[in-house]
Structures are given as C-alpha cells and as structure tokens.
C-alpha cells in the first residue's frame, strides 16, 4: 500500500471518530454545521469514487450516471414510506435496484463508444426524470416525503452512513486498482481493440464496471433520500450533481485511489467557503477557481507530487 493510501486510511479513521469529540463539545462548537459539511463532502466522495471505476479505470464517461442516484433515492423512499422498511434494508434495496438496472442496461450502453456513450447516459437521466415525474407510485412531480429517522445515534447516523458508503467505495477502488479485474479495465481504457485481441471479454468487464458504478451511486442516493427526507425528480436527477462529480474527479486525478477523495473534499470545502464569502457571485467565483485549478493541475491534485 502506498504512503498516500495509508494517510488516507488514517484520515478515514479520524473521520470515523469525529462524532465523539463533537458530541462532547457540542455546546462550544457548531457540531451540526460541521457534520453537515462533512456529510456533503462524503456524499460527493462516494459519487466520485463510483465514477472513477467507470471513467478513471475503464475510460467511459457516464455524464448521466446520476440516474442511479435518483433510482436509489426513490427506491429507499418507496421502501420506507410504502412498505415501512427500516433504514438499513431500504438502503441495501436502493443499491441492489440501481445495480440491477445498471446490469440490465450495460449490454446495450457499453457497446457505445466515447461521446455516444456519454450522451446516451445523459439521455437516460433526462428520460428517467420524466418517467418518475409521471408515475403515481413515485409521487409524480410532487415527490415523496420520507419518515424522519428517530432512534439510535439520531444526531450522527447519516454522517456515519455517508462515511460507510464512502469508505466502501474507497475499498472497492483499491480492489479495482490492484486486481486482475482492474488490470483488464485499464487495458480496455488504454486500447480496447488490443485488449480484445488478447482475449479480454471487453463487454463483460465493461458491464461489471458499469454495474459497480450503479451500485455505489444507488447506495449514496438511498442515504441522501433518508437524510434530506424529501425527494422529487429535479433534486435527485439534477445535472448539477453530475457536473460536480466530474469536476471533483478531474481535480483529484483520474484512475487513482486517493484522487477522488482529495477532489471531492477540495471542491466541497471550496464551494462552502466561496458561498459564505461571495453570496451573490459564488457561481462565477467558484467557476473561475475550478477553471484555474484544472488548467494549473492537468493531472489533478495527485499529480502534484509526481
């Protein structure tokens, strides 16, 4: 394991222990605000790690990958509201349903190349938003209100759930980076025709990569739905989430095990800082800072040390 990965593991350990000092100092620190910012950063980290499997290691940009975020959100919402499912089974269901949908679509989508694939996923996202907005059991355009969680670790449960999904996504990226499966994905990314000529079943490996991305993205969507307690099509099929995910991945570094974490935390904390200081101009200021970061760091934050 590389030194940067050990440092990241140490940081994950600190994040896991953070609720304990915050609970002791909640009268002197804005613990709720700190947890909200970190929860948002961990949510984005999960999405970036998921996209890193498909784009970073396989070379396929799913501009509409956030489709599975919406599917996971609605699965968790329907399971909780209509069937009274507890939070953990509903989250598992959100990941499984998103993965099954990804697995069913992969044989079609993964035959497309380059920008055709990217545009097809974006069309899927827009189509799913319209379908969900016109179905009765999804609440239509009115959306769904989820039950508010009351119970064990009530004040910290969603922070810990976001942490668990992000850490799982990190471990998944570590596995992909070091395994034979990951080497096959990298071969596809570098030269798909050459990989196929060497006996790599490219469609199968790409489909598994697409399914893994769908699963992690769906899990993150499920936690988000329970956290925010209200979802509707514009909020969970929002193209802005896709844009933030891609920007964070480019900032951190494609196809690396540490870059997605660095990019997500950097972008989320920078966004929060700019929002608080430049309320009227935060969009312009944030866009300019992102462009400068990408221009000055073409290989991402992980490329600085090389």
TrEMBL record:
Membrane topology annotation: Multi-pass membrane protein
Record field: transmembrane: 34-55, 62-79, 91-109, 116-135, 155-176, 203-225, 245-267, 279-297
Subcellular location: Cell membrane
Pfam families for the chain: BPD_transp_2
Main localization, broad class: membrane
Gene Ontology CC annotation, any one: plasma membrane
Keyword vocabulary terms for this entry: Cell membrane, Membrane, Transmembrane, Transmembrane helix
GO molecular-function term, one example from the UniProt record: branched-chain amino acid transmembrane transporter activity
PANTHER family: HIGH-AFFINITY BRANCHED-CHAIN AMINO ACID TRANSPORT PROTEIN BRAE (PTHR30482:SF10), HIGH-AFFINITY BRANCHED-CHAIN AMINO ACID TRANSPORT SYSTEM PERMEASE (PTHR30482)
The name this protein goes by in its record: Amino acid/amide ABC transporter membrane protein 2 (HAAT family)
Organism listed in the record: Hydrogenivirga caldilitoris
